[in-house]
Amino acid sequence: MNEPVRYPALQVVDLEAEGAKVTDSYRNMVINRVNGSCLRLAVFDGNYRWHYHPKSDELFIVIEGCLALDLEGGRELHLHPWQSVTIPAMTVHRTRAIGRTVNLCFEELAAETVFVE
Question: Which of the residues in the chain have pLDDT under 50?
C-alpha cells in the first residue's frame, strides 16, 4: 500500500481530535510511520470485509466504542476502550464496529490485504 502519511516524525499528533473530525461512516488513515510499520487511525460504524494479511500481524487498540473481531471458525473477540489484541499473519478475520468505533492499528506499511469472498 502506498498511502500518504499524515504526520511526519517529531510532530505531536492529537489522536482524539483526529478521530473527532471524522463524520464519514468509514475512514481509515495512516497517521505516521515507524520504520517499516505504520500507525493507522480507523473510525467506522458497520462491518469490514473478511480478509487476511499474508505476511503481517495486525495489532488493534480500541480508543472509543466497541470493536468486534470475528475469526474464521466462529471465534469472536470484543475490544472495549484501552483493550488490544494482535491478529497473527494469515488469520482470516473481519472487524465489526458496534456503533461508532475509533481504533488504532499497527501493521507493516506495505501489508498486503487479501479479501475472502
Answer: none
